[in-house]
Write a structure and sequence with these properties.
2 helices; 6 strands; two-stranded antiparallel ribbon; Alpha-Beta Plaits; four-stranded antiparallel β-sheet; 37% strand
């Protein structure tokens, strides 16, 4: 099993969610986060004063999937989340040694 931690632009969430559901990914956790990479924030004007917004709002999508779906899921995320502009996000791929469904005690792929 593999955990994908995906950082995307907020307005791309619905497209990514639909793309993942269409290939059989049913479980995911969504978190509103803030951060920056190369994008480095932007300037805004509030009541006539200019200030720098250091952290850009993003969505973090966590999902655990079987290893055989990894490339398919990555391709779906790239197509759905990509705009071709800076700040599109990142996908981090982490190994998962075990999963347990609390309600039933199921383990491994059965717990997904």
């Amino acid at each position: 099993m593999v955990k994908l931690e995906t950082i995307i632009k907020p307005f791309k969430l619905d497209e990514v969610k639909e793309a993942l559901q269409s290939i059989g990914v049913s479980g995911m956790t969504i978190t509103e986060v803030k951060g920056f990479g190369r994008q480095k924030g932007h300037k805004e004007i509030y009541r006539g004063a200019e200030y720098i917004v250091d952290f850009v709002p993003k969505i973090k999508l966590d999902t655990v999937i079987p290893e055989d779906l990894v490339e398919k899921v990555i391709d779906a995320i790239l197509k759905a989340a990509g705009t071709g502009k800076i700040g599109d996000g990142k996908i981090f791929i982490l190994p998962v040694s075990e999963s347990v469904r609390i309600r039933t005690g199921e383990r491994g792929k059965d717990a997904l």
